[in-house]
Structures are given as structure tokens and as C-alpha cells.
Automatic annotation (TrEMBL):
Coiled coil: none annotated. Residues 3-85 form the Elongation factor G-binding protein N-terminal domain. Pfam families: EF-G-binding_N, FBP_C. Residues 100-197 form the Elongation factor G-binding protein C-terminal treble-clef zinc-finger domain. Keywords: Metal-binding, Zinc, Zinc-finger. This is Treble-clef zinc-finger protein.
Length: 210
């Protein structure tokens, strides 16, 4: 039974890496136990377990001493992640009615259990598209994307990465006027999704663009 969102899955992976690092960098059992306790507290704060079986799925996290064990754990718990529901091409096109020649990427290689939002860049128009669900409703934003070739903090995932500026123009209150809103986000949306552990930051970001 799938009981984790993608964000919760990324949170568990983050805690697993902390435990793995504790096992590999320290021989002090007190240090390891402290890291394990903090990880368990974070997981319990973020996940609601319906029964004991769901809790037992997480138990191997506390004994991750090799990279192989950690990768095996990630693959095992991935079966319990609710995937991002793949939208149809027509559903996506309805989100962007002004883009008559909207070019959609190939979605065959997308791992739907690893993403909280779908995003792609159209180099022909310099536009970046973001498709997401909020309260079960499919939504989308798009804007002009400018690559900076610089490292910075992503507004969405709060990771230090190569970022660019996404700028959205909206009609102003007066005829013929426009307002622009934007911020820096990761160039690589797949890595951004993998680092996204606070979905509220994402909703704040897209909300500010509207």
C-alpha cells in the first residue's frame, strides 16, 4: 500500500543518509544513537503510519552501514510512494491556452515517484513550464527563464545549485501595463525535486508568481 508522498520519501532518504554518514564517520555508539533518534523523530513528525506493517518498512534505516544497503533501502521503500499522477497531453495544453504551439517533452523517462512537480524548458521560446497539483487540481505556470551560469540558492528546494531566473509577466490593473514577478530556481528540475523536502516552499513560490 502506498502511504508516502514524494516529499516524504525525500525526507526519509535525507534521514537515511544522515544515519549512513554517522555509521561511516564515527565509532562512538552514543553519537550514532543520537543521530538515529533525531532521524526517527523527524520521520515520525512527517509521516503518519496506519499500522505496524508501515512502521516496520522503515526499520532497516537504522542499520545502514554501506552504500549498497542504503540504495537497497531506497528501492524497497519506493514501492510505498504515491507517484505524481501523469497528466495527459491535452490536460497540460489546457493549462497554457495562449501557447498554441506548445512543445511537450518526452515523458517516458520521468520517474513519477521521484517528482512533486513536472517541469521542462523550451529553448525555442526561452520559456520554462511548471505543472503541479494543489488540492487535487492540476495547475501550471510558465515564464521566461534566464540561465545565469551561477550558483545560488533555489527558492523551491533551498539547495545551493546552478540556478536561473524564472520571470512571469501578468497584465496590470491599467490597460497596457504589466507586472513582473520571479525568482531563482534550479536549472535541473529533477535534482530540485529530489531535494524538495518542504512542499510549502514550492506552493509559496508558484503562488507568488500568480
Amino acid at each position: 500500500m502506498e502511504f508516502m508522498t514524494t516529499v516524504q520519501y525525500q525526507i526519509v532518504k535525507k534521514q537515511a543518509k544522515k544515519i549512513f554518514n554517522a555509521h561511516t564517520s564515527s565509532k562512538d555508539p552514543n553519537v550514532i544513537q543520537a543521530v538515529q533518534a533525531l532521524a526517527q523523530e523527524e520521520i515520525n513528525n512527517q509521516l503518519v503510519f496506519a499500522d505496524l506493517d508501515q512502521q516496520l518498512v522503515m526499520q532497516p534505516i537504522f542499520e545502514l552501514k554501506t552504500k549498497e544497503q542504503m540504495e537497497h533501502f531506497f528501492n524497497e521503500i519506493k514501492a510505498f510512494v504515491k507517484p505524481f499522477e501523469r497528466p495527459t497531453d491535452s490536460e497540460i495544453k489546457k493549462l497554457f491556452p495562449k501557447d498554441k504551439k506548445l512543445k511537450l517533452p518526452k515523458f517516458e523517462n520521468v520517474d513519477w515517484k521521484e517528482i512533486s512537480y513536472l517541469s521542462w524548458f523550451d529553448p525555442g521560446t526561452n520559456r520554462k513550464y511548471i505543472v503541479y497539483r494543489e488540492n487535487e487540481t492540476l495547475k501550471g505556470v510558465r515564464g521566461v527563464y534566464s540561465t545565469t551560469e551561477k550558483m545560488g540558492i533555489c527558492t523551491v528546494c533551498n539547495r545551493h545549485s546552478k540556478v536561473g531566473m524564472l520571470m512571469v509577466s501578468k497584465s496590470g490593473t491599467a490597460l497596457g501595463t504589466y507586472t513582473k514577478r520571479g525568482n531563482y530556481i534550479c536549472d535541473d528540475s529533477i535534482s530540485c525535486n529530489e531535494s524538495l523536502t518542504e512542499i510549502e516552499k514550492f506552493y509559496d513560490f508558484v503562488g507568488n508568481l500568480k
